[in-house]
Specification:
The chain is α+β, with helices and mostly antiparallel strands. The protein folds into two domains: 94 residues, 2-Layer Sandwich (Alpha-Beta Plaits); 146 residues, 2-Layer Sandwich (Alpha-Beta Plaits). The protein is 19% helix and 30% strand. The protein has five helices and ten strands, in the order βαββαβββαβββααβ. Strands 1, 2, 3, 4, 5, 6, 7, 8, 9 and 10 form a ten-stranded mixed β-sheet that branches. A hairpin with an 8-residue loop joins β2 and β3. α3 packs across α4.
Length: 254
């Protein structure tokens, strides 16, 4: 038996999330189908985490057990030839049998992308949230710092979250801005919000972004973020930002 670890990127637009669901098209379903066609085995693929419908991944990490003798250097090409164009395997390596893509993950980074312009960008409409009004990026940066450290993130997760503990640790946050003028708007630009933590609750990053955007537009003060966090009440936080702006950016292991 062999334990194969892979890094996978995907455009989540056409999928009902990562996890297999009855009668739905999912990332996990497509990956398991490709491995099955290649090896003739029924495999269960484990991921570092489950992305929601419409969410993307730059470097999702997966692993699965196989009895196939295919050389490790041939796996990527073989799998990619059996995957749709919006899913790509970038790396493959053989790991100890006890490696687990989710349990062994130490840090995950998500990136949320915002296209700040009067007009939508037709070329990035599936990977960036369009925001027509100006944003106070420095205030957004400062507000995110209230979330760094270990906290109970009940205010920033969906009420449908099923896990018992809502305590998570945010190691770092950052906001990057890049001017990207477009026709009819010389002040247009792209904002990337990065959040790195030891784990994330259902819709946690998207609710954080939705709340921080309200800080950026002046609807909330920066200090409200701490008050919302301490209250542990989802109703006090902002809206859940659209899924298509979110990308699982990186997963780190020891």
């Amino acid at each position: 038996m062999r334990n194969i670890k892979m890094q996978v990127s995907y455009d989540g637009t056409a999928y009902c999330g990562y996890q297999i669901q009855p009668d739905q098209v999912t990332i996990q379903g497509k990956l398991e189908e490709a491995v099955s066609i290649l090896t003739g085995e029924e495999v269960h693929i484990t991921s570092s985490g489950r992305t929601d419908a419409g969410v993307h991944a730059r470097a999702q990490v997966i692993n699965f057990l196989t009895r196939s003798a295919i050389p490790i250097e041939r796996w990527c090409l073989a799998i990619n030839s059996r995957l749709p164009d919006d899913i790509t395997v970038h790396t493959a390596e053989e790991m100890p049998l006890n490696f687990h893509a989710r349990h062994d993950a130490k840090q995950k980074t998500y990136r949320y992308s915002i296209h700040r312009s009067r007009w939508p960008d037709v070329f990035h409409r599936k990977t960036r949230l369009h925001h027509p009004s100006l944003l106070d990026i420095d205030a957004m940066r400062r507000s995110l710092r209230y979330l760094e450290g270990e906290h109970d993130f009940t205010s920033f997760c969906s009420t449908r979250t099923s896990v018992e503990s809502h305590v998570r640790t945010i190691f770092s946050t950052s906001v990057e801005y890049r001017p990207e003028p477009m026709l009819g708007d010389g002040e247009a630009g792209v904002i990337h919000i990065y959040i790195t933590g030891n784990g994330f609750l259902f819709n946690m990053v998207r609710i954080i972004v939705g709340t921080v955007l309200e800080v950026g537009t002046g609807k909330r003060s920066e200090s409200e973020i701490k008050q919302i966090l301490d209250a542990r009440d989802r109703k006090l936080a902002g809206p859940t930002a659209m899924a298509h702006g979110l990308t699982l950016w990186e997963v780190r292991y020891e």
